[in-house]
Amino acid sequence: MRNALIAAAALATATTASAGFFSDCDHSAPRSLASPIAGVTKIIVIGHAGTLKVEGRSGAGDVRANGTACASSESLLHDIALRATRTGNELRIEADIPEDLFMEQASLDFTVTLPNNIPVVVKDGSGSLEVVNTASADITDGSGELIVKGVNGDVAIQDGSGSIDVSDVTGQVRIRDGYGSIDVVRAGSVLVEADGSGSIDVADIRGDFTVGQKGSGSIDYERVGGKVNVPERSRR
C-alpha cells in the first residue's frame, strides 16, 4: 500500500509540473508592425501557431499587424516577432516563431488589417483563422476553425482539418478539404474538388455547385441557381 501511495504521489507531482510547464502563456508581450503598400499588388500573410485574423478595410493606406506573443519562457518570448518583407510588388507579413521547440511552447495571436482591394494569400499552421472583407483570397490552413466572409472576388481554400464556414463571396469558392464540415452560403459558385470526411452544406448559390471526390459525410444544398453536380450516391 505504501508503495502504491508513493507512486500515486509521484504521478500527481509529475502531472502538476507538466501542466505548469506546458501552460498556454506563462510569458506574453505585444507585437506590432506597419508597412506602406505603395506599388503592392499582392499581400502574403503567414501565421504559424496561434490565432490569425486578416481583415480588409476600404481606403487603408498601409498594412498593420498587431498581436500578442506567448511563450513558456522569457528567453523564448524574445525570439517571437512579426516581420514584414518586400519582394518586388509582393508584401509578406509573417509570424516569426522559433522551430524545433523541445519541451517548450510558443505562439503568436495576431490581426492583420490591409486594403480591401489587394489580393491576399494566407497560410496558417494551427489555430483558428478568419479572413474578412478582403479582395480575392488564396487560403492554406493546417488545422483549426476557418471562417471566410465578405470576399470581393474568388476564394481558394486548401484545408487539413477543422470546420470551414464561408459566406458572402462574389466569385467562385473552390475547396480541397481533409476532415471537417463545410458550410457555404451566398456565393457566386461552389466547387468542392475533394473532401475526405464531414458534411457539406451550401445555400443561396448564384451559379453552379459541384462536388468532385467525396469521402464520408452528407451533402445538402438549397437555392442553387446553376447546375448541381454531386456524387450519384449523394443526389437527393
The number of helices is: 2
What's the quaternary structure here? single chain
The structural class is: mainly beta
Distance between the termini: 64 Å
Uncertain runs with pLDDT below 50, 5 residues or more? 1-22
Sum up the overall morphology in one term: globular
Residue-averaged pLDDT: 89
Q: Could you tell me the number of beta strands?
A: 17
Give Rg in angstroms: 21 Å
Helix share of residues? 10-25%
Q: What is the total number of structural domains? A: 1
The sequence of SSEs as H and E is: HEEEEHEEEEEEEEEEEEE
Summarize the main sheet.
17 strands, mixed
Content of β-strand: over 45%
Reconstruct the topology from this structure:
Elements: H1 2-21, E1 27-36, E2 42-46, E3 52-57, E4 62-71, H2 74-77, E5 81-87, E6 90-96, E7 106-115, E8 120-126, E9 129-132, E10 135-143, E11 146-161, E12 164-179, E13 182-197, E14 200-205, E15 209-216, E16 219-224, E17 228-229
Parallel strand pairs: 2-6, 2-8, 3-7, 3-9, 8-10, 9-11, 10-11, 11-12, 12-13, 13-14, 13-15, 14-16, 15-17
Antiparallel strand pairs: 1-4, 4-7, 5-6
